Amino acid sequence: MDFTGSKIYQRALPIILVLTAVAFGCAGRPGGQEGVLGTKEHHISTGYRLMRIHYFDDAKRAFNLALQIDGCCSPAYRGLGLVYGEEGDFEAAFQAMNRARDCAKEDQDMALVYVGFMRLNILEKGVGWLRKVEEDFSIARTIKDDLPDAFYEMGLAYKEAGKTPEAIRSFKQVVEMNRRLVADAKHQLAGLTN
């Protein structure tokens, strides 16, 4: 039986061709879903999300996947440093943060490295920790003056040190910038002003 002239064949042929093209066109090609999920940016983003909800082992795995793609990736090293800091391994934390500084290529990355140093000093609370945080804050602002992350960490440092007026000023600066961390800053302000 010859179907090539039938109406069923004529209707089905375009559908078959489209499905075949989709099946062969998307399978394993770099621009497909697999390509998006396997990028260093995706791994870094995933690492920071996991770190925020305290899935530290999974966050480290994501940052290390990014480093497999790019061995000198500042945001991935910064993420590892922050995770190690949260886990209390400050030697590994500062080593990773130093590596992040060495790999930083853009001002934003370099400024965020100094914000990372701020966070590590807040967590460690070593000798002269507040002075170190203020110094790193000053360096971060010299590199990028309008970074809400730096003001937010400075607010946390002042809060930890019992310097409430300074903490409020820093958190208000984050809110006025109206970019990242606004909700977090408002939450901190609510706790300080009530």
Produce the secondary structure layout:
Layout: H1 7-26, H2 33-37, H3 40-52, H4 56-69, H5 74-87, H6 90-103, H7 107-124, H8 129-143, H9 148-160, H10 164-177, H11 182-193
Which range does the strand content fall in? under 5%
Q: Low-confidence stretches at least 5 residues in length (pLDDT < 50)?
A: 17-35
CATH superfamily descriptor of the largest domain: Tetratricopeptide repeat domain
* Gyration radius over CA: 24 Å
Ends distance: 84 Å
Briefly, what CATH class of the largest domain? Mainly Alpha
The helix/strand order is HHHHHHHHHHH
User: What does the overall shape look like?
Assistant: globular
Number of domains: 2
Named CATH topology of the largest domain: Serine Threonine Protein Phosphatase 5, Tetratricopeptide repeat
Strand count, sense and barrel status of the largest sheet are: none
The structure class reads mainly alpha
